[in-house]
Amino acid sequence: MKLRLEPADEYMHPLEEASNFNESMYFNVYDPAEGVGGFLRLGNRANEGYAEMTTCLYLPDGRVGFMFARPEIADNDAFDAGGMRFDVVEPFEALRTAYRGKVALLEEPLQMANPRQAFTENPWVDAEVELDYRGVSPMWGGEPVNDDGSPIAENPGEGFARGHYEQHVGARGAIRVGDEEWEVDGFGLRDHSWGPRFWQSPWWYRWLTMNFGEDAGFVISIVTAKDGSQRIGGVALEDGEYRHIDRAEIETEWEGADSYHQKIRATAHTVERDYEIEGTVLNLIPLRNRRKTPEGEQLVTRISEGMTEWRWDGRTGYGLSEYLDQIVDGQPVGVNG
Predict the structure, then answer these.
(1) CATH topology of 1-198 equal to that of 200-337?
(2) Alpha-carbon separation of residue 151 from 2, 96, 209, 266 (angstroms)
(3) Could you tell me the residue ranges of all domains in the chain?
(4) E strand or H helix at 128, and its extent?
(5) What's the whole-model pTM score?
(6) What is the pLDDT of residues 5-41, one digit of tens each?
(7) Which CATH architecture has domain 1-198?
(8) The domain 200-337 belongs to what CATH superfamily?
(9) In sequence order, which residues have a C-beta less than 8 Å from that of residue 26 and are 6 or more positions away?
(10) Which residues have a Cβ under 8 Å from the Cβ of 51 and sit 6 or more positions away?
């Protein structure tokens, strides 16, 4: 299997026939000097008539400004919906993100386990995000293709992100929430995906993004299917180059009756060396996706987003630890994974 990635992939892809076709971009950032960060995501699901728009802002005092909406869209011509917009300035080098709209200001971010209650019981304030992202690493990923360059066929019902690439980035700009404003100069990770997607396709996954400044970072990914099979991968960024991770293990300490991840120990292996990284979640918000099957079964997926402090090789870094689990009998299925 080959991976194809070209500068044109930074832009929008043709809308495919699959009803659940999704094209999305995601950007995260954290500025340790200000103690502020977050992520923006826009996923176009044009065949379903809407986009998934998420704004999540972690504030220095532990509050989280959060907004999720499904603004109507009729095509896949741009990332521009619900007050959020992404623009490619120079492929693989520079992109611009913006959000202008409302956020619910959560004193207790775990309240988002019940979105209706969280949105009802917390105040709404105006928010604005303007961040310019620059690449600090090569690109990782692409779209699987056959030897002749044609896309590999897939079952739309099992799809999640056929085309997918990631990049470590730096970001500068401003975040405003209510009457407060922070000038941001931090680091993060971005990704771009396209193809059929159901959030219920993985049984569970762990996606760890880490930045240790301009010169170092990691992505560690473990995706587990319901039959127990796994896809393990990621990259280590050192000296401006990516080293591909071929083995990884993640140990998690859980907190509370709902089992949210709190402490993480990750080990990873590349051809060149081994890595040991420890993480502590600074703030966490649980997000939810629900889908009803044609047979009427209600499927519930939880995506726990933890802003995390990472420690590696005597250095301290920051990034997101994203834990996706299907929920069965009220519990995430990957707790004992």
Answers:
(1) yes
(2) 10, 29, 28, 33
(3) 1-198, 200-337
(4) strand 124-135
(5) 0.96
(6) 999 999 999 999 999 999 999 999 999 999 999 999 9
(7) Beta Barrel (2.40)
(8) AttH-like domain (2.40.370.10)
(9) 39, 40, 41, 190, 191, 192, 193
(10) 42, 43, 44, 45, 70, 71, 73, 81, 82
